[in-house]
Amino acid sequence: MPNRLAHETSPYLLQHADNPVDWWPWAAEAFEEARERGVPVLLSVGYSSCHWCHVMAHESFEDQDTADYLNEHFVSVKVDREERPDVDAVYMEAVQAATGQGGWPMTVFLTPDAEPFYFGTYFPPAPRHGMPSFRQVLEGVHQAWTDRREEVAEVAGKIVRDLSAREIAYDEVAAPGEQELGQALLGLTREYDPQRGGFGGAPKFPPSMVLEFLLRHHARTGSEGALQMAQDTCERMARGGIYDQLGGGFARYSVDRDWVVPHFEKMLYDNALLCRVYAHLWRSTGSELARRVALETADFMVRELRTAEGGFASALDADSDDGTGRHVEGAYYVWTPQQLREVLGEDDADLAAQYFGVTEEGTFEEGASVLQLPQTEGVFDAGRIDGIRQRLLDARAGRPAPGRDDKVVAAWNGLAIAALAETGAYFDRPDLIDAALGAADLLVRLHLDDHARLGRTSKDGQAGAHSGVLEDYADVAEGFLALASVTGEGVWLDFAGFLLDHVLARFIDPDSGSLYDTAADAERLIRRPQDPTDNATPSGWTAAAGALLSYAAHTGSEPHRSAAEKALGVVKALGPRVPRFIGWGLAVAEARLDGPREVAVVGASTDDPAARTLHRTALLGTAPGAVVAYGTPDSDEFPLLADRPLRSDAPTAYVCRNFTCDAPTTDPAHLRQTLRG
What we know:
The protein is α+β, with helices and mostly antiparallel strands. The chain has four domains: 4-164, Glutaredoxin, CATH 3.40.30; 184-190 and 267-313 and 405-594, Glycosyltransferase; 333-398, no CATH class; 597-674. A hairpin with a 5-residue loop joins strand 4 (106-110) and strand 5 (116-120).
């Protein structure tokens, strides 16, 4: 019989709806139940494409004996971290403080007042590698709760007090300048892997936000070192197994330093961020590899992640059926020489094995190889390789596909909107712009209420119950601002303004200018989460700074610019010390130092080919964070278009900084040179 999770919209929670565990969703009623029964709460946090979450569910939560013990001695609460990032952030901070590490599934034991007192991540069904079994943990926690409850309460209270004391003491309100950004670049240079690209060792994650900073820094300063790090990292990732050489799109991370073997889950946010990075790399260098990867990644998102309602699904699982009934990580993506021969025949299989690096020994498990792209690709017959790639892709489509998390997350759709809109504009792909518009329409229609309050998720056309957090407001505003620049439709600027007004009113400390991840009127947890550092996506803090800065450039709003500059104070403090973890903040700081530039393009008609050429030229400018308004001289959709007449009856571009303008131009070549950083 299904448990309470059967009524939820989260695919991850629905995966547990038939467990024998008597799960509750995160709700006040669950804690009231624990209080009435006098038992602790087991909080289990994960997400649908998490491999070890599935493992622990199969080993423990589907086991009747384990479920019976849990149901008798605990109230069990299951949380989708993607749906409730605030709950995840608060308790992950406690786990990391207590154990020195974190991860998912996250396993935390709480008092009925939601105060944590024992922590962990994955626990096996039997003792293994020094880890206790999950049953041993349950029995130990139950015994401590029964025999030493006062001690448990004391520990829980101390943990909550320690977490509360971690609130950011925010007295650095000046935005970073040349010195801090130079120090950040130097710090990145020290951590850079010159042989393999990227930063640090294994596991190696795509440094999307750092790459954006490096490209902007190069555009503003001409630093060849910054550009070289970005170029080399992008090339190594694009040639590695972390990139899907058949279908496009990036996996979550590489388990090795060489980008060979990925953790195969594909996340919307990674692909949105990387699509935009590769499009910007092409914009800076003309790299054909960057162009191809940007377009293939955009096509992957539209083909495999777009939902029937027009939004974008969260993720594809790492695991799938390997054809024998086993659920195996990477089964959908890897190849053996024999599998190549079965699809291609002997001669083409040998060529494919050479081209994609498929060996008898394999680069993955059980003799299988992850496809890679060699440095010597130019020596191969391109037409023959294209045919091989298509045949392999067609054959792969017949394999059992990985599961898809159809949950639409507002923030990640905002990132996808920005990436698709810009990629479509750069490469004359109106279908990609249409896909971005479809997702934006869904967010307005389903996620925004009458007061422009934003919901975090939806699924199958049904809005989720949870409020948006700071990253939702900031990333959706970022997407809408990009869409406004690309389409010339000022309504997207208006919608961005509505969202950013909420940021100013509900997420910013009015005294210090610091930002919180949840609104002032949001559900109260044991602490109000606040984290300015990037993780897999830009932090809400720095994403808000970027959107506020762009909106101020469009409108001249001093409150928005002031809030952005105050928010960037944290980048001044952290950028020189931990540049890898505040890359988006550094990118925003580059935009601020450059202005950002305000570009107005006017034509007698927005359909005029000459006006469209000038508009596209403006969009292709590399000046960091430049904003573009496009329309007719009499348009009132963009403040930047006010009092901007045509010159000599020709389409005209105006380039300004802080609303002080250069001489207008009708020449695309001159505009291109003006916006080259």
